Write a sequence for this structure.
């Protein structure tokens, strides 16, 4: 069995974001970077699947991104992936989901992966398209927003999250694409021996041009911080009346109370 | 008549043959017993504790003969020390008898137990015997009548008390019988030099000479056999501590207090980190377990134990011993328990008080290292998140690293990146940099330095967590990677002097970072500010206040900095009321050992307990010299319901408030 897991390095959300000089993306000064949270679930699930099958599967981790993206590949290797693939692209922030998906599909085409794992979306761009697009290009079955995963005899049984707290069960034959959601698993913290082993694992680097063959279908028009319009409502008065008013507000403005 | 007595009176000098045969027998039983135990210790890995011999001998002699560590707890310590000294005198007396009877008299034809010397010898030994009985009685009453909480009494304790009482009392009976038959009748001038023996002797004055002789002979042999029994029983009973605890003074860790081994991560052939089995610990760790007397002084002082956590430092040490003797090849961590290991605040109260010189904290850290580095384990998810935050943003809060220097906006501070020509580098640390309440410490410190005319630099957004909390939680890898970045940065600025307001940063930079190549002088604000005041560099407005002082573990117990904060606060107009637990006996705030990152889920809360102790003094202000302590106390005041009754302040804040605008 061959497994691929795709990860993205994203800016930590606590960072201070400022628009870049072109005003179409964020400036990288003073940002901290990390593995996209949803991709951590994907890596964990891929490693769990490998372990379930007696460590027999060959597990590749791929990241398309600038030089610094190698850090998240190293982390995935320390978590248990066998080989790293870095598609180097210092302009990756300008690529749209279609280009990224096409590049990953291009890389995967002749590799016969039985399962390809993605995070369900990235924390920075949040398009949630790359996984599904890769499945489409490779003509593979795909299940997205997975919160439960089981594998047996060539069949993936997944539980996916729907709106309003509903879940649905999906079965699909491998090869297949899975995109992972929060709650699927608890990513492991790499142990030191595995961190040390990871340093000796194969790490292949390719220029983006090898795989990025398509033009963008979409472009970011503008990037700016949301306007500050903080709103705070203080309810005063008797507890009974304030409670009723609170319930009314919650009904009106949120889905918390029905 | 001459002042002396016939040695081996009534027993006969021919007794030396069975006597020495039996002694050799007992001696070899003891020797073999100890040898067997050394094979248990050898299961541990190597560790050098035989370097710097003169220093070690000095420690051994002073600690053994002056009973320094034993005497640190008044009641039982005094009983033990006097028992030790009096029993020691009796032992020396026995050696003198042996020397004359079996060597100087038969071989050199000379005697020394005569005349005035004999009188002194007789009186001293007689009183030492009485003293030993009284002290043993005191220990007996404490253990068996008062039964202090937590003091476990086992077979060994009954045996030791019974054997020692029996030896002492048979000694007096033998003396009494001899005196009844001899001195009291024939040489009464000597009896004042055996006052206690005389009391016993008077009991037997009604007996005839034959009965006295028979009784004396029988009891003499009983006394002798008991003494041989004591020697033979040494290794297999708690009495072994006579040798092992003493030896442990010789094996003292001579590294700076609190130093922990920096793991060589790159060159680790085995791929094994920390301790998962007894064999992963050092021989000294197993030896410690065997030297433990279960006096429970550590347990009495453990903040985790006192607040209902599963940790007892004594039990951890004992369990290591049990596993070593069971020759267990694995299962160390599960036997002791994960929650037990995570409960430790590394406050060092256990180690500070231990009369047997046992090193508790490093054992716990070794096991935590295994949990962390081999399993990727944490005390809770919140700690994992905090650790990942340190990895990504260099602080446990997960706040943007770029905002680390924001607290200094508008203050007379140089950012090293822009201008590194400074008198001191202030290493602010995570809490004083990011925690809203704690920023007052950093700002106060800058104000003090400015008043003293010093140029202060900070690393600002380049500074990272010193790594102390994660290191104490066992995550040596994260510590080393984070620390290495700080060290390289500081070295690059060619800094001569660093000051911290956090004792955790202070210990880490001044001691732990030495292994990573930092050489700059590092000082804590408490001593630094004290020197500034003493040198007249800053003048404080006199503004009296009443306070109690919390000695932070990593300043007091770890670095012996106890007087300086008191001096500073005194000069600031403070009137100090000490808490019962202060100085070396201070009670941790609960934040040490990386616990600052963890939620306290079992038992009551350590910080609330400490605030309660502060409240007991009646002082309205609780002063500490540590951002962790301040954060814990602010929280303890709120959750414990002490708002309005106790106010938590840092020393730096108090001083800064007394400096003119």
């Amino acid at each position: 069995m061959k497994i691929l897991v795709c990860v993205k390095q994203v800016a930590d959300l606590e960072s201070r974001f400022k628009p870049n000089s072109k005003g179409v993306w964020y400036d990288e000064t003073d940002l901290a970077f990390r593995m996209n949270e949803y991709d951590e679930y994907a890596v964990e699930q891929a490693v769990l699947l490998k372990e379930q099958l007696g460590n027999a599967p060959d597990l590749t981790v791929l990241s398309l991104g600038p030089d610094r993206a190698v850090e998240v590949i190293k982390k995935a290797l320390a978590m248990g992936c066998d080989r790293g693939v870095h598609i180097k692209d210092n302009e990756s922030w300008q690529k749209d989901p279609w280009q990224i998906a096409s590049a990953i599909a291009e890389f995967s085409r002749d590799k016969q992966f039985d399962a390809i794992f993605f995070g369900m979306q990235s924390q920075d761009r949040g398009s949630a398209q790359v996984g599904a697009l890769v499945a489409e290009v490779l003509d593979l079955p795909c299940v997205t927003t997975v919160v439960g995963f089981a594998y047996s005899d060539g069949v993936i049984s997944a539980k996916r999250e729907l709106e309003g707290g509903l879940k649905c069960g999906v079965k699909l034959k491998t090869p297949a694409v899975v995109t992972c959601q929060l709650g699927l698993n608890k990513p492991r913290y790499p142990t030191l021996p595995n961190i040390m082993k990871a340093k000796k694992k194969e790490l292949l680097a390719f220029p983006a041009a090898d795989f990025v063959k398509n033009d963008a279908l979409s472009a970011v028009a503008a990037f700016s911080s949301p306007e500050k319009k903080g709103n705070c409502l203080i309810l005063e008065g008797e507890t009974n009346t304030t409670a009723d008013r609170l319930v009314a507000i919650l009904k009106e403005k949120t889905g918390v109370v029905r | 008549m001459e002042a002396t007595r016939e040695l081996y009176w009534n027993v006969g000098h021919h007794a030396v043959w069975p006597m020495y045969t039996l002694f050799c027998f007992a001696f070899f039983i003891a020797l073999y017993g100890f040898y067997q135990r050394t094979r248990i210790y050898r299961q541990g890995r190597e560790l050098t504790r035989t370097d710097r011999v003169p220093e070690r001998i000095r420690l051994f002699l002073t600690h053994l003969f002056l009973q320094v560590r034993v005497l640190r707890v008044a009641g039982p310590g005094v009983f033990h020390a006097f028992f030790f000294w009096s029993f020691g005198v009796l032992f020396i007396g026995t050696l003198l008898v042996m020397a004359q009877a079996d060597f100087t008299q038969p071989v050199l034809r000379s005697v020394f137990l005569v005349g005035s010397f004999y009188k002194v010898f007789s009186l001293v030994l007689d009183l030492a015997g009485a003293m030993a009985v009284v002290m043993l009685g005191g220990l007996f009453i404490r253990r068996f009548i008062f039964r202090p909480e937590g003091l476990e009494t086992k077979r060994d304790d009954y045996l030791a008390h019974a054997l020692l009482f029996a030896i002492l009392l048979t000694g007096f009976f033998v003396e009494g019988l001899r005196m009844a038959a001899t001195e009291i009748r024939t040489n009464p001038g000597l009896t004042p030099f055996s006052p206690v023996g005389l009391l016993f002797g008077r009991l037997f004055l009604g007996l005839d000479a034959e009965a006295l002789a028979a009784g004396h002979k029988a009891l003499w042999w009983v006394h002798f056999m008991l003494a041989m029994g004591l020697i033979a029983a040494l290794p297999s009973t708690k009495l072994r501590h006579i040798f092992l605890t003493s030896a442990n003074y010789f094996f003292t860790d001579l590294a700076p207090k609190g130093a922990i081994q920096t793991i060589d991560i790159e060159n680790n052939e085995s791929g094994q980190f920390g301790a998962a089995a007894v064999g992963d610990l050092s021989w000294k760790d197993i030896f410690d377990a065997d030297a433990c007397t279960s006096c429970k002084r550590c347990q009495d002082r453990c903040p985790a134990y006192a607040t209902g956590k599963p940790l007892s430092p004594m039990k951890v040490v004992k369990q290591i011993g049990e596993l070593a003797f069971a020759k267990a090849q694995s299962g160390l961590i599960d036997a002791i328990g994960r929650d037990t290991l995570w409960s430790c605040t590394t406050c060092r109260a256990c180690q500070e008080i231990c009369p047997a010189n046992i090193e508790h904290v490093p054992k716990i850290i070794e096991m935590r290292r295994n949990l962390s580095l081999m399993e990727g384990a944490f005390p809770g998810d919140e700690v994992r998140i905090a650790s990942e935050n340190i990895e990504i943003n260099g602080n446990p809060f997960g706040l943007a690293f770029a905002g680390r220097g924001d607290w200094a906006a508008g203050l007379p501070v140089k950012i090293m990146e822009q201008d590194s020509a400074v008198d001191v580098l202030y290493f602010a640390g995570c809490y004083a940099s990011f925690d809203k309440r704690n920023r007052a410490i950093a700002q106060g410190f800058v104000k003090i330095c400015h008043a003293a005319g010093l140029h202060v630099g900070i690393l600002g957004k380049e500074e990272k967590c010193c790594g102390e909390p994660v290191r104490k939680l066992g995550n040596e890898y994260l510590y080393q990677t984070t620390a290495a970045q700080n060290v390289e940065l500081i070295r690059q600025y060619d800094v001569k002097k660093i000051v911290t307001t956090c004792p955790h940063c202070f210990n880490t930079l001044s001691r732990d970072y030495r292994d990573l190549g930092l050489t700059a002088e590092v000082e804590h604000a408490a001593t630094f500010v004290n020197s500034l005041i003493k040198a007249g560099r800053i003048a404080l407005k006199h503004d009296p206040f009443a306070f109690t002082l919390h000695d932070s573990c990593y300043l007091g117990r770890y670095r012996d900095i106890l007087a300086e904060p008191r001096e500073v606060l005194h000069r600031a107009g403070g009137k100090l009321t000490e808490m019962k637990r202060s100085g070396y006996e201070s009670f941790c705030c609960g934040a040490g050992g990386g616990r600052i990152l963890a939620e306290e889920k079992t038992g009551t809360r350590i910080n609330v307990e400490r605030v309660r102790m502060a409240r007991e003094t009646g002082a309205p202000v609780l002063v500490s010299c540590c951002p962790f302590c301040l954060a814990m106390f602010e929280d303890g005041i709120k959750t414990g319901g002490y708002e309005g009754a106790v106010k938590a302040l840092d020393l730096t804040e108090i001083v800064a408030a007394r400096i003119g605008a």
